[in-house]
Amino acid sequence: VIANKQGDRNSQACLLWGGDEEIECGLTAKQKMATRPKQAVANSFQLLMPQELDEERLKIAIKELPCDYDALSHTFQLKCQIQDDKSDELRENVRELTPFDVQVKLFRAELELARQYHISSEKDPVVVISIPSYYPKSAWPELARAAKEAGFHVAQIITEPTAAILAYGIG
């Protein structure tokens, strides 16, 4: 795991929409999420394949989201109040993102960090993705597709317990 700008070895798990085209990922987005929760998405990977989750896990995943989630269209509803230039009135600006779009943006933030450590950007960086053990196996290809669209070559997807064993050289 590559250290982020703050020196932490955590993956990007939070995304914050600035109200226009700007999207921030990572710790900065997480810190701003406290004051702008309706503009943020966190822990979204669970909803990449919502039809694969049982009803209870789906309810928990939606409840943990800071932003609104439309279960029918499977999109996050990011909302921001912006001031109208002409009338000085506040209006609500809404941006919809699918869980797949969010994952691609989070992976792109990871890719940016990876490229800071590895100057050679001739080939797509190779990545091994670790996920929670409860994550549905049928959703793994969709996660790999998001990583590939972001610019990674996915070597393998493994569960977090397996990743821990490999990291500590136990296996």
Description:
A hairpin with a 4-residue loop joins β4 (68-70) and β5. α3 (99-117) crosses α4 (140-150). It is built from five helices and eight strands. It has helices at residues 27-33, 55-63, 99-117, 140-150, 160-167; strands at 14-17, 23-25, 40-42, 68-70, 75-83, 90-97, 126-131, 153-159. It is of the alpha+beta class. The strands form three sheets. Strands 2-1-3 form a three-stranded antiparallel beta sheet, sandwiched between helices. The mean pLDDT is 85.
Number of helices: 5
Tell me the Rg in angstroms. Answer: 17 Å
Q: Average pLDDT value?
A: 85
How much helix is in the residues? 25-40%
Got a strand count?
8
Main sheet attributes: strand count, strand direction, barrel closure: 3 strands, antiparallel
- Helix vs. strand class: alpha+beta
What is the terminal separation in angstroms? 19 Å
Name the beta content range: 25-35%
Outline type: globular
| Quaternary structure state of the chains depicted | single chain
How do the strands line up in the largest sheet? Answer: 2-1-3
Q: Report the uncertain regions.
A: none
How would you spell out the order of helices and strands? EEHEHEEEHEHEH
